[in-house]
Write a structure and sequence with these properties.
Structural class: alpha+beta
Strand content: 15-25%
Distance between the termini: 46 Å
Number of helices: 2
Helix content: 10-25%
Largest sheet: 4 strands, antiparallel
Radius of gyration: 19 Å
Number of strands: 13
Length: 194
């Protein structure tokens, strides 16, 4: 009898945690934190390591071709970077904290960020409310998606209609890349999707 109560208690706790997690990431991307905003700072003026850093640290922004999206911005490990419609670029404002930041870790920097295939003048940083330094592109804070397990995966594309992979110029990608199949690459059927 006692064992059944413990099992039921664990199941109820697990269900509550799952419900809270899903509530924090649904509709609007789970932007919690009460509209906290960061203060924009120039890439060249920073370079110091922040304590309390959270997110996914990167030292370089580069580009990669990703199926169905075209050329996107990636971090130094090749993971696709995203921007969030609830944030803003002018002025730079970060809104993804708490549960949202667990699913969408900020692309953080511990020092300078180099670029490859991206205009360095578009790259800057913003200080997050937790004290970490988040990388921005054209003013937009950048994020990784926790469900992207491999480089060049883009499972976060279009999530909640507010998360989008970013172009080298900082624009969000909202349409699939145009492809002109040639007779040698035309496929005969198949599923598609992710």
């Amino acid at each position: 009898m006692i064992a059944i109560r413990y099992v039921a208690g664990y199941a109820a706790t697990g269900t509550a945690v799952l419900a809270l997690t899903l509530a924090g990431c649904g509709g609007g991307g789970g932007s919690s934190g009460g509209g906290k905003s960061g203060t924009s700072s120039s890439q060249s003026s920073g370079g110091t390591t922040q304590s309390g850093t959270t997110g996914s640290a990167t030292s370089m922004l580069t580009t990669a071709k990703v199926a169905k999206l075209g050329t996107v911005v990636t971090d130094d490990k090749g993971y696709v970077l995203y921007r969030f419609d609830a944030d803003s670029a002018n002025p730079t404002k970060v809104t993804c904290y708490d549960t949202c930041a667990t699913v969408w870790p900020a692309a953080t920097a511990h020092g300078g960020v180099t670029t490859k295939g991206i205009d360095k003048s578009l790259v800057s940083t913003v200080k997050r409310a937790d004290g970490s330094t988040q990388v921005t592109l054209a003013g937009w804070p950048l994020y990784r998606y926790a469900k992207d397990d491999e480089p060049k995966e883009a499972y976060g594309q279009g999530v909640d209609g507010t998360w989008f992979a970013v172009t080298p110029g900082g624009a969000k990608i909202t349409t699939p890349a145009s492809t002109s199949p040639t007779p040698a690459t035309t496929s005969t059927g198949g599923g598609g999707g992710y």
